[in-house]
Amino acid sequence: MTLLAGCENFDLFQTEDDLNKKIQARWNIVRLPATNPAEYWTFSNGIVYREILTNPMRHDTGTYKIISSTLDNPSMDLAGFKDTLSKLTAVWDIVRLDDKILFIATDKNGDPGVTQHEFYK
User: Fold this and answer.
1) Is residue 6 scored above 70 in pLDDT?
2) For residues 44 and 62, is the Cβ–Cβ distance under 8 A?
3) Does position 43 have pLDDT exceeding 90, yes or no?
4) Which of the listed residues 3, 5, 79, 86 has the most CB atoms within 10 Å of its CB?
């Protein structure tokens, strides 16, 4: 007799549609360092709207597409941002996405090492 134990966290088995539904919201970026200005990203139907609360307020817009929802490596492609210094145009791994937290990381944006962004609602 063979017994297979399964994972009880069914969030691991999210489809691209599931990921798209969960990501569509307004997210607050975790500020590191804490002295950085507040920043919000809103994902909506393939568009990412960035608001950076500086004086004057800065805005940027890009696109996103979930390109993989494999079990071990869900990812999305961010593109089209005008603020090239932030190096957001890249394929990003979706490390965590649930109802409260979005955590993305990439080593494909031209910076040395891994760049990561963590958000909360």
Assistant:
1) no
2) no
3) yes
4) 86
Structural domains in the chain, sorted by start = 14-120 (2.40.128.280)
Between CA 74 and CA 25 the distance in angstroms is 18
CA 44/CA 66 separation, integer angstroms: 12
pLDDT at residue number 61: 97
Dist. CA 116–CA 104, nearest whole Å:
6
Query: Would you list the DSSP string of the chain?
Result: -------S-GGGG--HHHHHHHH-SEEEEPPSSTTSPPEEEEEETTEEEEEE-SSS-EEEEEEEEEEE--TT--EEEEE--S-GGG---EEEEEEEESSSEEEEEES-SSSSS-EEEEEE-
Q: How far is CA 92 from CA 6, 51, 72, in A?
A: 28, 20, 13
Cα dihedral value 82, 36, 104, 116, nearest 10: 100
Question: pTM here?
Answer: 0.85
